[in-house]
Write a structure and sequence with these properties.
about 450 residues; 2 domains; 16 helices; globular
Length: about 450
């Protein structure tokens, strides 16, 4: 049963990739080209940063632990997002979702296996970046990061169970606390200093098994008890209302704010200075908020048949949609950053750096969502969209950084201009792709 479900799921994924190449060959080819570029950028970045980071972490163990906390925080946020979009029984479709498929088989084949494939693909550039720094301790670092990812996924399952008023949420939360209490941070910090350890491997395996059991026993969703109707006037306001009505996006907004406030508290307890803790937590909140810009093109695409009949130019319509998506992401990101700075107030000059990073990340998310659409209810499509976002964000930010270095605009107003230019270019490409897709 497991092999049959896995074969069916990946066959559907292969067909959708083939359809993407048939409908938009140039964007699909560019997205495919980003894969080797991403590996090259990761290796180049790791080689150039290894010398400085290795000596710095070797001289300051507290700084190494603070870096481990920052990396684990991002990994936990990734676990929350991945677990929320992982395909489950809904991947079978509405007609087969009620089939008598064993709970364990559906969890392994339709949730754990796709997530494992995505994490394995993500581990390649991470390995290339860490290898020059950690050396023989790279596998231990990867195992510790995997434990952090699954800890975040378990936390999401506990939150889902609590939201559905299931008592098993307490069990999920207890398991997540046990994984966190096992301290995956110490092996990560030691790996950053080049010291290998065997402890992360059983911890990662136990965290994976606990998450798989949580997924298999996820409580069913509760039926809605009523409808809420409201009116929105104007293209931008109606798009904002369309995004805000999605429960999944609202959950991401809550997670972004929670990781902003909770992350800065964890970083401060780890000994990181106020400015660095606020900056890292703010960037984590921005990554969580970027899901709004990532999902917006796919949500708009559900009504492409309406946009073809709209009495307005297509590019102008999608430009307004893009503005609404970036505005929604910026609003959530601003709340997350404000929550982080409320816990650890930093210098106002850091606001410009956070805003520049947000411009590049939100532009990358919007462009990724236009290339690989985020389909509501389609976990496999959402996982593919997240993978595209990881590749595009890495390549786009690297290109913007190199442009800033070549032009000598690495700080101040020049850096802000480069970030805004990256956002405008990403929005332009996204609008062009969306306008072409509805012709």
């Amino acid at each position: 049963m497991v092999s049959t479900l896995c074969s069916a799921l990946f066959l559907c994924a292969r067909r959708r990739v083939a359809d993407a190449f048939a409908s938009a060959p140039l964007p699909a080819a560019l997205a495919l080209l980003l894969v080797p570029c991403l590996t090259g950028v990761s290796l180049w970045s790791g080689v150039h940063a290894a010398e400085t980071l290795r000596s710095t972490f070797a001289a300051d163990a507290e700084l190494a632990r603070s870096a481990a906390v920052a990396v684990a925080l991002s990994a936990a946020l990734a676990g929350v997002v991945v677990s929320s979009v992982a395909p489950g029984r809904r991947a079978l479709g509405t007609q087969l979702a009620a089939a008598p498929v064993p709970r364990a088989a559906s969890a392994i084949a339709l949730t754990v296996a796709p997530v494992a494939v995505l994490l394995a693909a993500t581990a390649v550039p991470v390995t290339l970046f860490l290898a020059p720094l950690a050396g023989v301790a790279t596998p231990a670092a990867l195992a510790a990061l995997a434990a952090a990812v699954f800890a975040g996924a378990i936390a999401f399952e506990a939150a889902v169970a609590f939201s559905r008023r299931a008592v098993r949420g307490f069990a999920f939360a207890a398991v997540g606390v046990l994984v966190a209490a096992a301290d995956p941070l110490t092996p990560t910090a030691r790996a950053l200093q080049g010291e290998a350890s065997l402890r992360p491997y059983p911890l990662a395996g136990a965290a994976l098994a606990a998450w798989a059991i949580s997924v298999a026993h996820r409580p069913p969703s509760r039926a809605s008890r009523g409808l809420v109707r409201f009116s929105a006037h104007g293209i931008v306001l109606s798009a904002l209302a369309r995004y805000a009505r999605r429960p999944q996006l609202r959950a991401y907004a809550i997670a972004a704010v929670a990781f902003g406030a909770g992350g800065v508290a964890a970083l401060r307890m780890a000994g990181l200075p106020v400015a660095a803790a606020a900056l890292v937590a703010s960037l984590t909140a921005i990554l969580g908020a970027a899901v709004f810009a990532l999902a917006a093109p796919g949500l708009d695409g559900c009504a492409d048949w309406v946009w073809r009949l709209a009495p307005v130019r297509t590019w102008w319509l999608f430009l307004r949609f893009a503005f609404a998506a970036v505005a929604a992401a910026a609003a959530v990101g601003a709340v997350g950053v404000a929550a982080a700075w409320a816990v650890a107030p930093a210098e106002p000059r850091l606001v410009a750096s956070v805003a520049a990073a947000a411009a590049v990340v939100f532009g990358s998310a919007l462009l990724s969502g236009s290339v690989v659409a985020w389909r509501e209810g389609g976990g496999g499509d959402q996982l593919a969209c997240l993978g595209a976002f990881a590749a595009v964000a890495t390549g786009w930010s690297f290109a913007a950084g190199r442009v800033a270095i070549v032009l000598g605009l690495e700080a101040g107003a020049g850096a802000a201009a480069v970030a805004v230019g990256a956002l405008v270019a990403a929005v332009g490409f996204a609008v062009a792709l969306r306008a072409r897709s509805v012709r």
